[in-house]
Amino acid sequence: MPKYLALFRAVNVSGHNIIKMEHLRKLMENNGFKNVATYIQSGNVVFETDETNKAKIAKNLEVLLYKEYGHDVFIFILDKADLEKVIDSNPYTTREPEPSGIKKFFVCFLAGDVSPQGIDQMNKFNRSDDVYKAIGNILYLKLSQSAADSKLTNSFIEGKLKLKATTRNWNTTLKLLEMLS
């Protein structure tokens, strides 16, 4: 049975779109998903399903969440090969985890490929020492300070690129690959 990763956009952030992961696991299992495992509270779910169409899986989960919680949540679906490609393509770091403390490497998953106009908008308004590189539908971030001090928030990225986005730090991204393996 194929194994997938679901990345939920904007759940359990600043008290909005609250979803308890234990309840979510049970909800998914009761709706035909197998071996459901979550990682931290930000909407990272690894599961198995007979369905192989990623767009259909995402839509089914989005409808399920809306019916159960009333939240309109955008969901990104990846398989192991997708996530390995994301990790191996990072221009700023290797497969090594970051040490404890402030995290500087992030992966922003996007709902489409980045346009040159979107990058122009980001360049125009990014006034920090943070750097980024777009490769297809992934934006790699290397922050000069902490995420809390960066202008490269999900809202900023979505506004400039005109794409839905969800961001994970490097260690979380590596852990999710481990869960898919």
Describe what you observe in this structure.
The protein has 181 residues and is an alpha+beta fold. It has two domains: 76 residues, 2-Layer Sandwich (Alpha-Beta Plaits); 79 residues, Alpha-Beta Plaits (2-Layer Sandwich). Helices cover 35% and strands 23% of the residues. The protein has six helices and eight strands; from the N terminus they run βαββαβαβαββαβα. The strands form two sheets. It has a four-stranded antiparallel sheet with strand order 2-3-1-4, sandwiched between helices. β6 and β7 form a beta hairpin. It starts with a strand and ends with a helix. 29% of the residues are buried. The model has no long low-confidence stretch (mean pLDDT 93). This is DUF1697 domain-containing protein. Pfam families: DUF1697.
CATH topology of the largest domain: Alpha-Beta Plaits
Uncertain spans? none
| CATH first level of the largest domain | Alpha Beta
**Rg to the nearest angstrom?**
16 Å
Average pLDDT, rounded to a whole number, is 93
Q: Look at the helices and sheets and give the structural class.
A: alpha+beta
- Which CATH architecture of the largest domain is right? 2-Layer Sandwich
The proportion of residues in beta strands is 15-25%
Helix content percent band: 25-40%
Quick one: how many beta strands?
A: 8
Count the domains.
Answer: 2
Please trace the helix and strand order, writing H or E for each element. EHEEHEHEHEEHEH
- So what's the overall shape? globular
Question: Gap between N and C termini, in Å?
Answer: 13 Å
Protein name: DUF1697 domain-containing protein
Pfam families: DUF1697
